[in-house]
Amino acid sequence: KKRVFSGIQPSGGLTLGNYLGAIKRFVQMQDEDYETIYCMVDLHAITVWQDPAALRRQTRELAAGFIASGIDPAKSILFNQSQVAEHAQLGWIFNCVARMGWMQRMTQWKDKAGKNSQNASLGLFAYPSLMAADILTYHATHVPVGEDQKQHLELTRDIAIKFNNDYGVDFFPVTEPVIEGAGTRVMSLRDGSKKMSKSDPSDASRINMTDDADTLAKKIRKAKTDPDALPSEAEGLEGRAEARNLVNIYAGLADMSVEAVLRDVGGKAFSEFKPLLAELAVAKLAPISSEMARLMENEAEIDALLHTGADAARAIAAPILEKTYDIIGMVR
Ligand code: ATP
Ligand code: MG
Asked: What positions carry the motif 'HIGH' region (predicted)?
């Protein structure tokens, strides 16, 4: 059976970008021909500062978000990364396989470290190496992610290939990215050239899964656009990043193609389109956020679920790590 792994950082609250770019696909893959493993990557989250109490709350809230969105712990393995030590252990080995130059080229590193990169954590620099370990410690073959993670997946392939070459083995699989659909690149509501992120300091830049109807409507009303009406064909979105983004979001939420959306709304002004988008977003997100709130009332139940998930994950990861140590020449 093909094996899927993907993770989300508990570095803030879930955004519509996470939902359309990742979780929606996670849910579908449970019912396809895959074994699915989904992780709250808390070790990744601390590559930038996280307040301990907030990290705890965000991890549980993320678990609630997964379940409320349709991840079924009976069908998928759901857990948080720090409970399965194999991730960090294999991550160290990959730190010794990957090259500094590979990391330096990563756009996420450049974006997140910013100008003052000497002050960024070493963990932030090595982020893709730990991500490769997340995936490869399960020998996962398919990784559903948003477009922004494509470069890290290519690096995961490079690490697998170099490890196999260095040790003359055919051990780690070469991973396939799964990046598809209108939602795989949701942009900031304030700047069409920047991706929507849960860690963006501006709350107005994103739609949170937990935003209430009024907040949603207000954020969409205030979203940056241009003065022209919507085009009736996709070519008309060329060079109109903000317009394209709102149409993409509509398409992702409605499960329609961009072309089909434009057939319906082409010619409308944004003042007409935005309320339609807000209505659709509320209809899709309100059931998820109310279910999240309900689940958050029972933290012990969430913790127990994560514990069970971690045991199941470790059962797969431990033998793969053992074999890795053996290949490398560690005496066990
Ligand atoms: P952070 O700002 O802390 O990096 P994030 O919102 O980028 O948070 P991640 O946990 O880094 O979220 O990524 C989780 C998943 O969501 C990944 O598969 C990523 O590709 C996807 N994703 C994140 N942002 C977007 C976006 N704007 N559009 C589509 N997919 C996204
Ligand atoms: Mg991110």
From this structure: 10-18
| Annotation says 112 is catalytic | yes
Distance 105 CA to ligand 2 centre (A): 16
Per-residue pLDDT of the chain in tens (332 residues, 90 and over written 9): 799 999 999 999 999 999 999 999 999 999 999 999 999 999 999 999 999 999 999 999 999 999 999 999 999 999 999 999 999 999 999 999 999 999 999 999 999 999 999 999 999 999 999 999 999 999 999 999 999 999 999 999 999 999 999 999 999 999 988 998 878 899 999 999 999 999 999 999 999 999 999 999 999 999 999 999 999 999 999 999 999 999 999 999 999 999 999 999 999 999 999 999 999 999 999 999 999 999 999 999 999 999 999 999 999 999 999 999 999 999 99
Is 195 annotated in a binding site? The answer is yes
Cβ of 18 closer than 6 Å to ligand 1, yes or no, is yes
For ligand 1, atom 26: residue with the closest CA: 17
198 is an active site residue: yes
Domains and CATH numbers, the chain: 2-184+299-328 (3.40.50.620), 210-294 (1.10.240.10)
DSSP secondary structure string for all residues of 222-276: HS---SSPPPSSGGGGTT-HHHHHHHHHHHHHHT--HHHHHHHHTT--HHHHHHH
Is 205 a pocket residue for ligand 1 (Cβ < 6 Å)?
no
How much is the pTM?
0.96
State how far the Cα of 144 lies from the Cα of 147, in Å rounded to an integer: 10
Q: Complex ipTM, two decimals?
A: 0.99
Looking from the CA of residue 206, the nearest atom of ligand 1 is 27
* Closest alpha carbon to 241 in 254, 253, 256, 223: 223
